[in-house]
Structures are given as structure tokens and as C-alpha cells.
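> example.struct
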């Protein structure tokens, strides 16, 4: 349900972001303004589909996906001062400190024992972010509840580091959540990098818990991402995918983000 104040707020932000609502913003795709304020344009027998309805109610949801240290946070930082857009970073600090415990660190030390613990908490925190109201028309998230399951839980399970029963319980939770809660996504931006690039960036970033990560781990995550988002042969893909070559340096990435702002922001 959209309250009138929220709709007014969105209109205001929109006109600041992309000019007056009468302007052409279609970009070859359906106008985002039309899908944000369809009430003004549609009659009783609307042909509005579920995606349009979602955009109207929740705004546009963009998930930035990619391997560990592929540059997702940097991408969100780049777009963070865009008017009409709110960024939601992965809550890594929570994963490192929940009431004084560090499930991320524990998982890297002993995945068989702590994989379920970390992934249960990741699933909860991602659900929290998906359902958090945003006053901005565009919500840009770092990863999603989908990659938590289809990439990280699957990797633990497929590599023999998660017990069948742990995997079954997480899967039951995941399936209940996605059928019971509206977690729709409008666009997935996949930052495609080589595992070697990520390994180098991860070493430079120097996050304590991640010191134990070998290159092979990044290969495994990479190949799960490729199967899910590029080949689209493993698990359901919840939204159209925009693939960006993210192997380039920071300056080149910024230039690319600036030049492709409209397609990245699903305008
Ligand atoms: N295009 C890039 N070229 C070089 N270094 C980068 C690039 N993008 C990010 N980095 C650096 O790599 C590390 C990981 O980037 P980050 O954005 O935190 O990745 P992620 O959020 O995907 O884990 C950080 O130290 C960041 O400054
Ligand atoms: N479901 C998840 C999500 C993330 N992680 C780990 C991977 C990294 O060590 C860290 C944060 O990821 P980044 O943003 O740096 O790509 O969290 C995980 O184990 N399970």
C-alpha cells in the first residue's frame, strides 16, 4: 500500500532525479515513471503485471551481485549520492559481531560446524534488508537472499562442508520465505571478475576472517555465479541480469558506471 505522502515524496525525488514527469525517459524500455505512478494512468481494468505492481509498491529494487571482493561495495559507494536512490550494503559487521559472537570468523575456521549458524543469520539479515521500507524510488542492495542460498549455502553443501540435515533445514526456511514474502527484484547487476582479480583485491583489503580463503574458494564461488546468472542453468534467476566486466581498475569502473548510469539504474 502506498500512502499519499510517500507517493508525493517519490514524485518529488523523481522529478529531481530525472526531470519533469512529462519528459521522455523510456530509454527503449517501459518508462519508469509510468510504472512508478501507474495509478494516475491506468483504468479499472489495468493490464499492470506483477513487476509493474511491485515497482509501484516497493520502487525499483536492484541487487548488485558478484564474487567476494569483486567491487560490490565500491559500486554501491559510487551510486550512493544519487538523488532518489538508497543503498543497502551487506551487513558484514553484523555477521562479524552478533551479541559478541563472530559467526563469519567461526565459519571460516570450521565450516562444517558453523556454516549453518552463519547462513541462518545471513538469511535473516538479508530478509530484513529486502523488506526494509525505502523512501527512495530506487533501492540498491548488495547481494540478496537469493545469492545467499544459491551461491554460499550451495557451495558449503556441494563441497561437503554442510550436513544434509543442515542443508535441508536452511532450504525449508528459504522456500517458506520466498513463497510467503514479496522479495521481488527488478534487476540484477552482476560484477563479473576473474577469481584471480578477486584474490588480489581480497588480499589488499585484508579482512582478518578472510585470511584463510584460498584461490580455489573464489573459483568455486565464481563458477556457481556463472551457472546461476550467465548460463542460467542452476537455480531460478529472479530478475533480468546486467553483466558488467569488473576486472578494470577503479577509475575505469567509475567511468563505466557513469556512462551506463541509466541502464544500471534500470531507467
Ligand atoms: N575496480 C577496482 N580496482 C581495484 N581495486 C578495487 C576495485 N574495486 C574495488 N577495489 C578494492 O578491492 C577491495 C574489495 O572491494 P569491495 O568493493 O569491498 O568488494 P566487495 O564488496 O565485492 O567485497 C577493496 O579494498 C576495494 O578498495
Ligand atoms: N551468504 C554469504 C554471504 C557472504 N559471505 C561471506 C563472504 C565474504 O567473506 C563476506 C562478505 O562478502 P563480500 O561482500 O566481501 O563479497 O561474507 C558468506 O560466507 N555467505
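> example.seq
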Amino acid at each position: 500500500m502506498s500512502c499519499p505522502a510517500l507517493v508525493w515524496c517519490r514524485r518529488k525525488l523523481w522529478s529531481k532525479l530525472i526531470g519533469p514527469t512529462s519528459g521522455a525517459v523510456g530509454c527503449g524500455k517501459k518508462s519508469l515513471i509510468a510504472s512508478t505512478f501507474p495509478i494516475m494512468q491506468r483504468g479499472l481494468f489495468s493490464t499492470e503485471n506483477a513487476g509493474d505492481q511491485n515497482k509501484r509498491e516497493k520502487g525499483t529494487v536492484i541487487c548488485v551481485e558478484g564474487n567476494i571482493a569483486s567491487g560490490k561495495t565500491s559500486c554501491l559507494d559510487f551510486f550512493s549520492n544519487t538523488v532518489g536512490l538508497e543503498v543497502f550494503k551487506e551487513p558484514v559487521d553484523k555477521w562479524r559481531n552478533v551479541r559478541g559472537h563472530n559467526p563469519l570468523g567461526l565459519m571460516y575456521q570450521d565450516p562444517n560446524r558453523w556454516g549453518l549458524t552463519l547462513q541462518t543469520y545471513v538469511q535473516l539479515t538479508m530478509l530484513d534488508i529486502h523488506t526494509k521500507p525505502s523512501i527512495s524510488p530506487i533501492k540498491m542492495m548488495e547481494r540478496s537472499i537469493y545469492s545467499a542460498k544459491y551461491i554460499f549455502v550451495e557451495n558449503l553443501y556441494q563441497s561437503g562442508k554442510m550436513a544434509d540435515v543442515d542443508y535441508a533445514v536452511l532450504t525449508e526456511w528459504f522456500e517458506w520465505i520466498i513463497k510467503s514474502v514479496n522479495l521481488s527484484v527488478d534487476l540484477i547487476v552482476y560484477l563479473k571478475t576473474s577469481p584471480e582479480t578477486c584474490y588480489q583485491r581480497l588480499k589488499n583489503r585484508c579482512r582478518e576472517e578472510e585470511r584463510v580463503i584460498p584461490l580455489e574458494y573464489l573459483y568455486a564461488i565464481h563458477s556457481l555465479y556463472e551457472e546461476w546468472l550467465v548460463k542460467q542453468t542452476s537455480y531460478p534467476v529472479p530478475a533480468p541480469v546486467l553483466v558488467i566486466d569488473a576486472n578494470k581498475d577503479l577509475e575505469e569502473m567509475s567511468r563505466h558506471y557513469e556512462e551506463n548510469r541509466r541502464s544500471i539504474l534500470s531507467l
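> remarks
The first helix runs from residue 4 to 18.
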